[in-house]
Specification:
10-stranded mixed sheet, 11 helices
Length: 327
């Protein structure tokens, strides 16, 4: 009995020691460089956002944040790698709506579960899109576009950056809510779609603000509205889609941070606070503005998770209704 009691006591001490070490490590996070997986190529929008934010977090924490690009399969390869990491705070995933709200409905055999394999940490920023039309189209508002499309069913087409992209989903959602018929013309990126839009060979495009607005400012294209809930500080003169007669229409590409599943609440809180602090920096806001991205309103991990679930449900409906599939 004495030996058994002693053994139980030693096991208890060992458990307590392990717990204490783990708690201390989380309390001291980070005490070594942190790997930030970005599941998209270097120099892309997500990579640039990650570097602007990570640089500020590193300055605040006094510890290096190493951005590690792991591109492929629409961001799902890097996301799967992040999902398999230890939930100790030294591997983070900085990603977008593509990998957690869209791909799960387009790629049923993903190597990760967007909800079960990650711990939501922080909603960082949003990138609204702008609705562009060719100058040859006799419309100057979203209402006029809808009226024209209904009067000319099937005669308009919309360009996208490919099947299943946010550009495609924005246009599909618009068509469904407005009750209009347009033909989908996919390109390999919006940069390749712009010349045909300018020439009037295509008629509508939902593009990012940084790539679309220069063509508006030089008179080559016309902008009708932004897709965010509120007017964008990056183009305050443009109304929202909701203001333009489509109540409830809202779409942004969001950027957020995740830990692998199983992260302790106290660690999630520390990582969240580190990124939330960085997002309050004027330097970060200025850097993101150059990318056409706006800091998200202050939030919590729980609110971030709820936002992603709502976004995922919405895109699931659009994808199902329009029978969108990857080629």
């Amino acid at each position: 009995m004495r030996l058994s009691s002693l053994r139980r006591g030693l096991l208890g001490l060992a458990w307590f020691a392990a717990w204490s070490v783990g708690a201390h490590a989380q309390a001291q996070w980070p005490d070594r460089p942190v790997r930030v997986i970005v599941p998209f190529p270097a120099s892309g929008a997500t990579d640039l956002v990650a570097r602007v934010v990570a640089q500020r977090v590193a300055q605040d924490l006094g510890q290096q944040m190493v951005v590690d690009n792991r591109p492929g399969a629409g961001g799902t390869i890097g996301s799967a790698e992040a999902a398999k990491a230890q939930p100790d705070g030294y591997t983070l995933l900085l990603t977008t709506s593509s990998t957690h709200a869209i791909s799960p409905h387009l790629m049923p055999r993903l190597a990760y579960d967007a909800r079960k394999d990650f711990t939501p940490v922080a909603h960082l920023a949003d990138a609204p899109s702008v609705l562009l039309v060719t100058n040859s189209l006799p419309v100057k508002t979203v209402g006029e576009l809808i009226t024209y499309a209904k009067a000319n069913p099937g005669k308009l087409n919309y360009a996208t950056s490919g099947n299943g992209t946010i550009v495609h989903l924005n246009a599909a959602a618009f068509s469904a809510q407005a009750g209009v018929e347009m033909t989908h013309v996919p390109y390999k990126g919006t940069a390749l779609a712009i010349p045909d839009l300018v020439a009037g060979q295509t008629h509508v495009l939902f593009d990012s603000l940084p790539t679309g607005m220069p063509h508006v400012k030089n008179g080559r294209l016309r902008a009708l509205a932004v897709t965010s809930e509120k007017r964008s500080a990056l183009a305050p003169e443009l109304p929202t889609m909701a203001e333009s007669g489509l109540p409830g229409y809202s779409s942004v590409t969001w950027f957020g941070v995740y830990l692998p599943a199983g992260a302790k609440p106290e660690l999630v809180d520390r990582v969240h606070k580190a990124f939330a602090k960085a997002m309050q920096s004027a330097e970060v806001a200025e850097g993101l503005a150059k990318l056409g991205v706006e800091p998200a309103a202050p939030s919590t991990p729980a609110k971030f998770a709820a936002m992603v679930q709502a976004d995922s449900a919405r895109w699931a409906t659009v994808i199902r209704q329009h029978k969108i599939a990857l080629e």
